Amino acid sequence: VSTQSTGSANDTQMEHQQPCRGLGMEWILLLVGMAAANPFDIDPSLSTRPALWEPLAHEYFPERRGGGADENGLDSPVVLANITHQRFAQHARKGYPLLVTDWARNMTYNGWTCKDFADHFPFGYMKAEYIEHMPGFNPRMHDIRIMDGERRFNMGNFKPDGNTMWYNFSRPASPRYGDDPLKPSSGPYVWHVKDELPPSQKKLVQQRFEAPSFLSDPLNKAWMNRTFEIWFSPGTKTGAGAHNDGYCESVVSFQLNGDKKWRKMMMPEMSFLDSFDEFDGGVYSANKWDPDIGYVNSRSSAAIWPPGYLHETNTLPTSDGSCQVSVTVQYAFPQPVQFIRAYLPRLSLSSEVGQCVAGSWNGYASFFVPGIYPSADTASIRIQHERVLEHLDANHDGSIDVPETISWFEKSGVVDHQAEYYGTEHTTLFYSFKAEDTVAYHDMDGDMIASSQELLDSLVQWNVVRTRIKHGLDLINKGQRAQLEEFERSLDPMRRKPITIPDSMRPELEEVFQIREGQRIFDDLESEGVHSLTDMEFYSRLQDRLAGSDHEHDEM
């Protein structure tokens, strides 16, 4: 979409009119900025659909729409059992929220209660979610360690009230959740086995872990074993408020003991001004919580969801009153690449997974060909397209298949730094899995081949998304709200429907736009590693910068 075609009618008029006499300099500068709001000069005929077009949920998730529903009318996920790796891969690459009913059926840990884990691993220290809301809680009474800046409580001896072991004691969740009986009312615990245990102790926990048969290859077994955390839920209605994870991969939560109710919600359509806190309960405060999936994950079953799917949990009573246990892991392959491709515009603006676009997802669109950078013009995108085909289309048929991609990985070494995570003895298997995911990212018709047009469509989308993020961040960094709103409106021809500018914004953005326009928060976004609107890269550092500015102002 060219700059001339993406602006409003008012923009077009401003391009051909002289500034009216009597307008102040501030208005003249504003008009000039609005006329130059859109950096794109992309021929709309280049791609099959507009670059920011996204499918509607019922179009993308046909297998779960029209199926079963829970007691609140929420749809069921896709339910699988006794599956092969190939069948699982087809669903997982699509990014469908899944329920695999026999995931943990043959695991040693299946059936273990919280007490079993406390008795076998008394050296563990776990996080107590919402402990600050327990009346009369005194942290000085307990065996506590500080990890990642937060308190961790010893699994072998923690008694929240000083008398009752933690796995027999219920304590309140956040009082913010009291407005809805479907939200959790009691707080769980989480044990970060993956990164909060010394190697010798971690090995003791990991040695009893088994992968399901359809993901029993060495890459997936190792990745799941190094990423798992264990959730303990005493009592009923225990769980976590709706939140988004910051993982760039699909996430699995399988039940070892008890049943857990899940509600999930696809990330909504987004603009920069729609950004909201996706951490615990933030979607409630933003009045955006509108779950579209609801179901019970029972013992031995696993819930699986792609990046960007907000989720809330709530335990059901166990028959013997025992404390419930679930395990959260990520697997290495296959990744939900087709979901990422389909919803990249909104995922790129997530305050949790937005960093993945310039990170682990960045190479899919270009088949990891070096030297390809985000561009805003047609000529550059055509050159990118030609370069990818030149490097990968070995038989010159205008398309790229999995064998050609494997061959490219082998001779170029462009993904070898990723393969090192899994050990050099598994490089060949890594190439195969990575090639399948990369081709599937582009594949829109299910033939596991990236046609020339599918490649071009992906490149157009990737260039627009990456350029939009960079341009929008720059406007936010300079506190230019009017220009940001105009920029968003100028992108409407690239969307399925025009965006609606919200009346209010998250507090951090409101604060940014209170600063003097043109005053930069970050001196240089690129050199300071700010490539997304995520908490990790942007919002947490933004708060530090604003607090520093306030402090400097106070001292003056």
Describe the fold and architecture:
By secondary structure, the protein is an alpha+beta fold. Helix 2 crosses helix 3 and helix 13 packs across helix 15 (about 425-440). It has 19 helices and 15 strands. It is globular, with a radius of gyration of 25 Å. Mean pLDDT is about 90; it is low at about 1-35 and about 550-555. A hairpin with a 2-residue loop joins strand 4 (about 145) and strand 5 (about 150-155). The strands form 3 sheets. Strands 1-2-11-8-13-7-6-3-5-4 form a 10-stranded mixed sheet. A 3-stranded antiparallel sheet has the order 10-9-12, with no helix packed on it. The protein is about 35% helix and about 10% strand.
Keyword list:
556 residues; ten-stranded mixed sheet; three-stranded antiparallel sheet; 12% strand; alpha+beta; disordered C terminus
What general outline do the C-alpha atoms trace? globular
Q: Can you give the mean pLDDT?
A: 90
Q: What is the terminal separation in angstroms?
A: 48 Å
Which band does the percent of strand residues land in?
5-15%
Uncertain runs with pLDDT below 50, 5 residues or more? 1-36, 550-556
Summarize the amount of helix as a percent range.
25-40%
> Mind telling me the C-alpha Rg?
25 Å
- Tell me the structural class: alpha+beta
What profile does the largest beta sheet have? 10 strands, mixed
**Strands across the major sheet, in which order?**
1-2-11-8-13-7-6-3-5-4
